[in-house]
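Quick bug: PepSY domain-containing protein output formatted oddly.
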Amino acid sequence: MSDISLGRESAAASARSSMDLYRAVWRWHFYAGLLVLPFMITLAITGALYLFRDEIDAIVHADLKKVEIVQGGAMAAPSEMVAAALAVEPGTAIKLTTPSSPDMSAEVTINGAAGKIAVYVNPYTGKVLGKLPDRGTIMWTIRYLHSLKYFGTYARYLIEITAGWSILLVGTGIYLWWPRSQTGGVLSVRGTPKRRVFWRDMHAVTGIFVGGFIVFLAVTGMPWSGVWGAKVNEWANGNNFGYPAGVRVAVPMSDEHVDHIAKTTWSLEQAQVPLSPEHAHGATPISLDQAVATFNSLGLTQGYAVNIPTTANGVFTGSVYPDDLSKQRVVHLDQYTGKPLLDMSYADYGPLGRALEWGINVHMGQEFGLGNQIVLTFACLAIILLAVSAAVMWWKRRPAGSLGVPPMPADRRVLRGLLAILIIGGLFFPLVGASLILMLVFDTLYTRTRQQRVAA
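Here's what came back:
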């Protein structure tokens, strides 16, 4: 056989191998999209809205949240605001949230017969402005939709599956986009919306620009997932707060967690709350006014929440999570002496805690101000366009009466390397691994069914 013939056979074999790999990647890119694109649309819409939570809440709930600034006017005492709230909503006051700015109201959380109720109070006059169920604002609704919290624990596991498969979607998408011989569809869009090539190019070009954002949002969204997020949170907190030795003083700790008593940052959800030491019988607790004065003297950023102790060994907890990470703070006060039992700030977090909190802050559009919000809004819109273009492209390509799954590679051995990568990812993210097994079963059944139909 001549060298020319050998060369042609080698080139043909190389082309077949390349085509088989392309088909394998395309097939799993299709499956990844089939699994997560509907969820990505929902996450993108709710996420884009939640980026502007403060602005939207201030408009929708202006009658509750906004007040007229009284120049030079003294604010009502915290105890007066709580008393006014209790007058309209009987129960036990468990939290006071101070105004985050001079034109914002204070919020008193009451635990009553109807559950937890948020009562909004004018901080200058002490007059009650109105009330809502606790976390009953429009943006809390959007947040719960975004995290699928409304649909129960098992539904929230979909967050982890979506995040893992979206990373796979980006990786396989980059391979499919990678320039080979085509001149369009790399950085430009060919054709018109009537043609499939337009939607193919739109999908590819949009994907290559937004792919990095998808990976970032997926990774930084993982902390809220049902399995991986819970385990990492537990591991990151370690014993009690899980912070460097010397940060926490030697005080007794309760079995209560910060997240159970107050809205908190993700990395402190499993942090335990200290106990007020036992005092002489009949000892008198400090007042809420004294606790707030102490928190002010310690320099907590305004807008902080004060959790009011409801048991004899409970503590006053002041916590604030502003856009500026450096000003995050959690302080626990002995309810009898007013002495700080624990004072924790962002600087006291370990390297993992700081990295996680930074990622979460950017994910929520807080770290870099308006620029952060605008950039992520465009990323969310691009994700929606990515999903829509994928659906249109599939619709135009699909054969009649078929799901339109991309063809199986002729040499199925090329699937082994791809599956090995997927399995490794599944070991790090258990729910993604479980969904991978289910998808493999589906693919096997689908392939056999198609082969039987063809044979018949």
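Actually, after a second look the formatting is fine. Strands lie at 92-97, 106-112, 115-121, 128-133, 253-257, 272-274, 305-307, 315-320, 329-334, 340-345. Closing.
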